[in-house]
TrEMBL record:
Record protein name field: Mobilisation protein (MobC)
Organism whose genome encodes this protein: Phaeovulum vinaykumarii
Domain Transposase IS30-like HTH: 4-45
Source species, domain of life: Bacteria
UniProt domain Bacterial mobilisation: residue ranges: 116-133
Pfam name, any one: MobC
Length: 200
């Protein structure tokens, strides 16, 4: 067979499907008895390709550092996932869940910010009174109430740090669950479709 023959639509779909599964270009070209350039042409065309289930698909490219790619592959390996293209597709399908703002965390941070502003205003007033007294050469009016306000601010800051750390950990746990759900069953071909259309 010639290595420059015209591919059928079915063969083009096969190229897209197999490459998405992580099959190498050289293996695909050997399987179809065409040149690697022909395979690259199919994958690199600007126009949409037709996928195995006849829905319109596009080949996407992106630039990452070698370090980022190793980190991503290591994260996939820890989950037992072999093909990064399948993982990327599943994560794209789950983007609405993964990128949704955490409303609960937003409300909590808003409340903490308001509390910090209230105590901070009191401390600013203490500092202003001390400054004015110093400029006038008067005895500094640092009262037990002033000390209590500053102590309250310190306590609030430490409490806020603890709460923010716990919110961060909870958010990480929630995201980890969402990612796990998005990547569930990737050992099986077509699992993203199952996840996308399966029961919630």
């Amino acid at each position: 067979m010639t290595r420059h023959r015209r591919l059928t639509d079915q063969e083009r779909r096969q190229i897209v499907r197999e490459r998405a599964k992580g099959v190498s270009v050289s293996a695909i070209s050997r399987s179809l008895k065409v040149s690697p350039k022909t395979v690259y042409n199919v994958l690199g065309r600007g126009r949409s390709a037709v996928s195995a289930n006849d829905s319109r698909t596009r080949v996407l490219t992106m630039r990452v550092t070698e370090r980022d790619l190793r980190g991503f592959d290591a994260a996939l390996a820890r989950r037992g996932i072999a093909h990064r293209s399948d993982a990327m597709r599943c994560l794209m399908l789950a983007a609405d869940d993964l990128l949704r703002p955490d409303e609960g965390m937003t409300d909590e941070l808003r409340g903490l910010s308001a509390a910090l502003n209230r105590v901070g205003n009191n401390v600013n007033q203490v500092a202003r009174r001390l400054n004015e007294a110093k400029l006038r050469g008067e005895r500094l009016p640092y009262t037990p109430a002033s000390h209590a306000e500053i102590r309250d601010l310190a306590v609030l800051i430490f409490d806020m740090a603890d709460q923010i750390q716990e919110m961060f950990r909870a958010r990480r746990r929630a995201l980890n669950l969402d990612v796990t759900k998005a990547l569930a069953g990737l050992a099986r071909p077509g699992s993203c479709q199952e996840t996308e259309h399966g029961a919630e």
